[in-house]
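Lecture 7, part B: from sequences to assemblies.

Below are the input chains for today's worked example.
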Amino acid sequence: MDWTRILTQVLGELLAPTTAAYALAAIGLNLHFGFTGLLNMGQAGFMLLGAYGFAVATIAGAPFWLAVAIALAAGAIFAAILGVPTLKLRGDYLAIVTISAAEIVRMIGRSTVFNDWTGGSSGLTGNSFKQTFQELSFLPDGQSSLGPLTYANNGSDSWWVRVVAWAVVLVAVLLLWMLTRSPWGRVLKGIREDEDAVRALGKNVYAYKMQSLILGGCAGSLAGILFVLPRAVQPDAMGRSMTFFVWTVLLLGGAATIFGPVLGSMLFFGTYMLLRSSMREVLPPEIVSSTQIEQIGGALVGVALMLLVIFRPQGILGNKKELAFNVR
Amino acid sequence: MTAVHATAPTRIGRLATVLVATVASFLAVFLGTTFGATPAHSATAPCAPDDQTACVAVVVLDASNSPVTGATVMVEGEGFTQELQTAEGQPASATVPGAGTYVVTLDVDSLPDGVALAEEAATEFTIRAQTGSTTRVAFRLGESEASPAPTATGGAGGEETDDTVADGPGTAAEPRPDGSVTARQFWQQLGSGVRFGLLLALASVGLSLIYGTTRLSSFSHGEQVTLGAVSAFLFVNVLGLPLIVGALLTILVCGATGWAQDAGIWKPLRRRGTPVVQMMIVTIGLSIALQFLIQLFIGAGSVRILTTNPQSWTVGPFTLTRASWISMGIALVVLAAVAWFLTRTRIGQATRAVSDNPALASATGIDTDRIVRIVWILATALAGLGGMLYGLVFGTTNWMMGMQMLLLMFAAVTLGGLGTAFGALIGSMVIGLVVELSNLFLPSDLRYATALVILILVLLLRPQGLLGRRERIG
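Predicted structure of the full complex, as structure tokens:
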């Protein structure tokens, strides 16, 4: 059994751009759920919109920063549209509306009507929108190794993507830390604990919730860009399962904590890879095919989420008193 | 309130007997009319394009844009020949050896009686297949109106997705270029809408009851629907049981999952005083786990419960398959039975009392845990029945069908008023009609989106839903 190879794979997964993208999406969700108590079940919709915004703008000829700005704007507008009807209602309405809206985005993206822009259900190939991002790279061409990991310096699955992705995550963590320590962040936590009490203090709860939804949604859009940079924009890869995985990441690390999303993402993808690789090693392919291993892995994620929420809802780093579960 | 406990079992027993008897008698008709259906293993899996695989998919449409089943089509070229039979639910697809030019020929003699090729319409079509995508070919039959010529478009590659699920008879109407809608198309879509609404109602009444009694939005309810279709597939197609036995077993199994869930998960969680949001995330975990488990059993492709060709019945302006008419009958009877149960039996009244105010209900001596247990069993059994009928009506079933229906169920339940069973019924009918009628104006891949737009509009204008009580819900 080749454990070195498996451990290398796991290590690679810890640093993968996808892990960073999920961490960032979970940071956005953390602002929503962990700090404000909003049940956003459509984080994948924000990510998909960000990915589309960035890719479509780049293909249309926008420079890199403009494309990023368009992606962020798409996320912000989406959040505002969702927030207006639901933020005054009970929490579970937001959950139903966000999950539905995320599906609408995916359906519109993959429909034949907008085929010219979104490429329908086959999506947009990576090479059509990566150029501007890769031109920004200041790394020399060639390969570099860090321990057992070797990647090209530039290109799709490269050190450049990893460096940028984790740098963005780091900035987001810092920003979240500063925001949640600020007076603004304290109001958010107040809303999470007791909305009416905050309202009684004369705060505009609706506005604060909206700001939180928009800010977290923008983090989701940015995560969407990070997610598609090493691959292509595939609407069907960014559906409900993705939202649920982001939730798992957040709850694993610990909601309402600063490092929870990052730890959760690394742990989730590391364990997921370890699980599947070792199953592949241990179980002979004649009995269990590789597709079946993927399916068993997926089912285990579901069971793990159930057990996690039942027995340790605060996750690894969290504090049980800081959970938004009790609100209504 | 000891009277409740004394009389309840007989009441439930009677209800169960009525339900089982009606379902059984309808299914007997089903069985009799499907040519003594010999259960066989599912048809060849549809072609899934990837980097090495090229696919050709063929549909034959009649004048009203409904797929014609049982037509024979030959795909030839690059030294490859395959004969395809069109079937209900999805286009007949062939895996061709690679990129290249192929000739697709329609065998005119194989067409069912009463449908003929339009004059001057081509029976032969030359296409270019490419790896990683499905090249689609459509033969159009009937009166030669606008353009009877076959059309071929490069279609989507990638994994199998939504559209295959609900592409059944009568759902394939594409908007016509001039925007006009014929009366015939309208009636056809109306019929499909009623059918879809009834099937949706079976599933969403349960969702609404669960929400009403426990305040839990169960995200795993979609998988309960899939479970119905999948267990029917396993019982009828794989194990070869007669349809009626398989159907009863399916309802039994689905109801059992509801009982097991409540006994194993939800009741202990309620005992611990677990907040509802936490339980909602547990249902998400359950939904993920069930999805992958179902895939493990039936694979990622589509399967068919019955492999016989459907026959259609025409009543008035509506032409639907025989399976559709019978399913609508079953749905109507079962929904009426549920309505009777909720309004006329003590258990049903107790259920509504718990929905209304759990604390007050238990103060009057109603055993809330018992009511919730019954609601779970009823809800999962209804969802299973809905899923099974859906699978029979639309021909194919796959692991994600319930997931897609879940959002429509949420839309229906919200539209009708969260927690009100009759609201769920009305909401489902509205959503079903809107989804199918929007097909007349919108491309079919956007039809579910209209339902979700309704959901958002309802929350803006009347958040308590059609039948919900006006109250502050913020």
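Note for the exam: The longest strand of chain B covers residues 54-61. Keep this in mind when comparing with the next example.
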